[in-house]
Design goal:
This protein has 95 residues and is mainly beta. The protein is built from 1 helix and 7 strands. 4% of the residues lie in helices and 51% in strands.
Length: 95
Amino acid sequence: PHRLVLAQLDDAATGTLLAANYDPQRGALKIRAIQMPASDLAPELWVIPADGVPRSLGLVSAQGISNVSIAVPHRKLMQEGATLAITMEPAASAP
């Protein structure tokens, strides 16, 4: 059956709040930046599956909505128990 997965990424210490919506059939991930602290760094999105090894899903916008197309090899990692994480990285060196 067609399922959408919703998640919220938040950090009370920094005031960061993002919402994620994943459509596994299309491999489409929508990230909405609700609140991000001002920074010269860019937010990089990661998936951390059960094996604990982070895989980069690329940069997302610090404002508004980012539509991320999950590459076919990474789609199998987007399952129950996986963690979505954001790190702040220099934009020039991030994928």
